[in-house]
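[Meeting: bench + compute handoff]

Bench side (C.D.) handed over the final construct sequence. Compute side (W.E.) agreed to return the predicted structure before the next meeting so the bench team could plan truncations. Sequence as handed over:
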Amino acid sequence: AVVVRAAQARSAERVDADALHALALADLGWSDAVGIPLDRAISTLRTAARLSARPAPALADLAAALLARADRRGEARDLFDAADVALLALDSDSASAPARFNLALALGRIGLVDELQ
């Protein structure tokens, strides 16, 4: 709760990619059955990645959030978006283990297992 309040205060002062990223992660932790915090987290992570000088961490978390929403709603589009976002993260940081993991999950769920090699 203290970290969330600090991130909120930081993002209220100025647009801060790291603060937005932290707020999005808090929303992911509080996601409910309706999915409003999950949708808000996805939107916030998109903004954080766009504003960040180092977008790979936010993009990797965005891919994970899209995978979570795909699980919740059963929409294939979120799986394809997760794969695209994970690839963007890898373009930014080719050593990003979270991005590689999320790409593998997305491609596996889409059925493109051969693309993992």
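W.E. noted at the follow-up: The chain has a mean pLDDT of 87. C.D. will use this when planning the next construct.
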